Amino acid sequence: MKKLLLITLLVGFMFQLTYSQNKIWDETEAQKTKRLEWWTDARFGMFIHWGLYAQPARHEWVKNYERITNEDYQKYFEIFNPDLYNPTEWAKKAKAAGMKYAVITSKHHEGFNMFDSKYTDYKVTNTPYGKDIIKEWVDAFRAEGLKIGFYYSLIDWHHPDYTIDRVHPQRVNTKEEYDALNKGKDMAVYREYLKNQVREILTKYGKIDILWLDFSFPGEFGKGRDDWGSVELIKMVRQLQPDILIDDRADLQDYAGGWDFMTPEQYKVDKWPEIDGKKIPWETCQTFSGSWGYYRDEYTWKDNKQLLVLLIESVSKGGNVLLNVGPTARGAFDERADKALSGMGDWMKLNDRSIYGCTQAPESFVAPDNTILTYNPKTNRLYVHLLDYPLQKLRLPGYQGKVKYAQFLHDASEILMSEPRSHNRGGDNKGTGDLDLSLPVAKPNIEIPVIELFLN
Ligand code: GLC
Q1: Tens of pLDDT, residues 136-152
Q2: Which of 79, 199, 299, 374 is the most buried (most CB within 10 A)?
Q3: What is the dihedral of CA 55, 61, 64, 70, to 10 degrees?
Q4: Is the pTM of this model over 0.70?
Q5: Are residues 286 and 392 in the same domain?
Q6: Substitution candidate for ligand 1 out of 48, 50, 292 with most atoms within 8 A of CB
């Protein structure tokens, strides 16, 4: 008996020990929800991938894909001069599209710094442009009332002490080859550089709302938490900016406080992602076309409806969308990006109530065919998004008695409700608990019309 008690105590103690070891940040679930509240309400943000790679204009991974050396990549540094750069204009476009926050690349994998860092010469202030792009960007976006985020690449294809790995432009095949190439390189030096730079971006520009670190690839010839010094790094970040939101790519998934939200990239989730049965905050990051940086010859652009469905569907599963623009090397959004943004803005202007503050609908509400539901728990309103406009009647299965009033969201015009009549659609629909909505024959001039239901 005594032995059993001792074992139980010991196991309990060890559990406590591992748990407290894997803890970076002390906060309750409720505190975390509160900290993330502005972001979960906002639902929609702009990602901006901008760097030297805008000049080759054939993917932000061009240095890797074409195995370009530092020497050959240098020509982009020497001519970088975005003469049309006007971040106020960018911020206004983001806002007009309905976006509430924005995240910009302060450094991407190429290693070039878009900000003025005292730890390197490889930075924008040493190019012909000569000014701190990040500072101008922060001032402009903040002035427009948008929340501010920094993407910072953990990967660095320029720093001399960053060891060659399997995603490096100079990657090789065997251990011997890697050892030979990495002789004399010291990741500890890079680790320090990375920490210093993250400290810089989090202390020079005021309150930063999001830090987007990218990315880890543990395993053979890969890199993960120990290479980045992730635990120390995130501890520092939390200390410097206690309200900040951090993505999940520093390889600390098993650490409490090691990350705040999940980042499904370029795919739609099937359902609200869960860990141990608990729904978790998530944001999908997506491009208009295939690449993040400006890619002149890429033509697989998503259309307006696809982009809207992406946003609505994400909200319907409790998530956010971070939609990317890759500005040109002159510092402008190209016309395709402008068109995509304004298409979303046209819809958002009249329908954003079904997005902001909304989330997954309660399980008791089933989505009719070809519709997506979102729900605002504060106002108790349900939004039915009509992906394929029905002919005159929309049947809401089992909604009878649950709805007080129905209207189109875009013009607040009433939609009449009725109990299905028995001869309708050839079946006996009386007593089913369904509810019919009478829609006008002509589809309103809205890409995806939304019906707003005031619930009982
Ligand atoms: C990836 C890519 C990158 C892009 C990022 C955005 O990890 O490496 O180019 O910045 O995803 O999510």
Answers
A1: 999 999 999 999 999 99
A2: 374
A3: 40
A4: yes
A5: no
A6: 292
